[in-house]
Amino acid sequence: MLALFVVLAATLAPTTAEASRYASVVMDSRTGKILFSRNANQRLYPASLTKIMTLYMTFEAINQGKLSFDQKLKVSARAAGQTPTKLGLKKGSTISVRDAVFGLITKSANDAATVLAEAMAPTEAAFARMMTEKASKLGMHRTSFRNASGLPNRRQRSTAHDMAILGAAMIHDFPQFYHYLSLQSFDYKGKSFKNHNNLLSSYKGADGIKTGYIRASGFNLVASAKRGNHRLIGVVFGGRTAKSRDLHMKSLLDKGFERMELAQPSVVPIPNSRPVSIALGSPHNTVEGGIMKASTASTAATIPTPQPAILPDPSDGDWGIQVGAFSRVGNARDQLNHVTGLTGGMMDGGRFNIQKVSTDSGSIYRAQMVGFTEQNAKSICRTLMDKSVACFVVSPVDGNLIRVARN
Prior knowledge:
Blueprint: H1 2-12, E1 23-28, E2 34-38, H2 50-63, E3 72-74, H3 77-80, E4 94-96, H4 97-106, H5 110-120, H6 124-138, H7 160-173, H8 175-178, E5 185-188, E6 191-194, H9 199-202, E7 206-214, E8 218-227, E9 230-239, H10 242-263, E10 284-288, E11 291-294, E12 319-326, H11 329-340, E13 351-359, E14 362-372, H12 374-386, E15 392-394, E16 401-402
Antiparallel strand pairs: 1-2, 1-9, 3-4, 5-6, 7-8, 8-9, 10-11, 12-14, 12-15, 13-14, 15-16
């Protein structure tokens, strides 16, 4: 199968004259396993892929209460003066965080990127230093940022591998926000801006993430797609045109899904295991400010094997927790992924147990994780309740929900 990837890359990769800026990676989002790579650690110009980190840090600030989607941000002269592509923001005007985020996702607006950067740091240059520090914490050790937009700067470099790490971190650290990256158009002040990521409408399962282009980089793309139980992240640097880049990405992802399906056929339904080891050698296993970050360990964490949903067995003391009931199974899964990152590793080793329950008004899905002792389950719930997350302990005897005292 690896030989197929080599042949594929040789067929679709840029010519010799362009090879110096070409790189690609296909990664299993859940485990961090690299299915294919070429020049993956070569430091290249990320162009507007840089905005993925700007979005990541914006979502982090929203999670921490430092920003809100409805908050109005003032447009500085520097922001208004950024070169296209942009929304055309005027000096002294305001824009909401939400509109700035949507402008980044769809139009790849450079003026909106600067507005967000200046809302989180004294200057865009200071924000770029924060971006580089965050990249290092996520395991992106060959990345350095110099601005929030990806506009040309010879010291702003990244790698295909690092961008795959960032794409996975975006998906797994902010499941409550990631769906915004599938936004296909955005209306702002009478104008409609179409998302540059054409895979959203032309590739089965594609739901993000971001395109990029400057002359020095060629056409770049970080893309994610989900089919069955498998989610892949693909990265292409240095495409000759947007069209050829997109065709190359589709072929790489197709081969990736074929390989995943051969190795682990999809069985429906199987709840997702907690996504770990995203950074390959710097697994996400510690928490800072409620956001998962990479440890400094030099070896990848052991990846838990996905387990089918099972009811707690009273014979093995299999206590659990429940953190909500939802009308969609995806929402239940997203909530479990979210709260896992809030407990500082307390939920490591637990198993997702999403229960479908039929009611007169339809089906609901209970978001549960099992596999804990009674004491651990109660401690987890207290921790989550301190973070304003509703939580119940699930008894292994009869599945009853037990409210625990916070202290």
